Amino acid sequence: MGSYKYCVCFTRKFVWRAAAPPPDVRQTFVEYSEGAAQMGPDQLRRFLAEAQGQADATLADAERIIEVLLQRRRRHHLPALLSRPGISLDDFFHFLFSDDLNPPIRSQVHQDMSLPLSHYYIYTGHNSYLTGNQLSSDSSDIPIIKALQRGVRVIELDMWPN
């Protein structure tokens, strides 16, 4: 995609690579596609209801999502694997991160917020990736996973090389 020269005579080229689906996305796809190479409308509807918590998702909703994903694949000249409608692992991965097909949860205040700020319990955390104290403990993704499972909505991550 891009290149630059360094040390006057060498050229370094960069190749952009599409992100591959991470293991948890692969595992979820295998689970809901029941091990098949494609996920059909019934399976996608079940994923939407069970994993996404969209209990009101219909078969028509799943079919519409699949149709949009298949149109995008055709637009990018990617061949359909089978004649029956279904999405591949890559289609599923793109669906999960698609703002128009799978938008983020909209925040809606569902409590009375008319009181002064001091009347509310506010919890804040620091270094949520640490397994213990800030000075001598290890970093891990386990505390972050547990916080997300408990319903934490925002986590700040400090990104450092290695």
User: What best-fitting shape do the alpha-carbon axes yield?
Assistant: extended
Q: Bin the strand percentage.
A: 5-15%
Rg of Cα set: 22 Å
Number of helical regions: 5
- Order of strands side by side in the largest beta sheet? 1-2
Q: What this model shows, in words?
A:
Helix 2 packs across helix 3. This protein has a two-stranded antiparallel ribbon. The model has no long low-confidence stretch (mean pLDDT 78). It contains five helices and two strands.
Give a short summary of the structure.
This protein is mainly α.
What key phrases describe this protein's structure?
single chain, 162 residues, mainly alpha, two-stranded antiparallel ribbon, 5 helices, 2 strands, extended
Question: Layout of SSEs?
Answer:
Elements: E1 2-6, E2 10-14, H1 23-33, H2 41-50, H3 59-75, H4 89-96, H5 142-149
Helix pairs in contact: 2-3
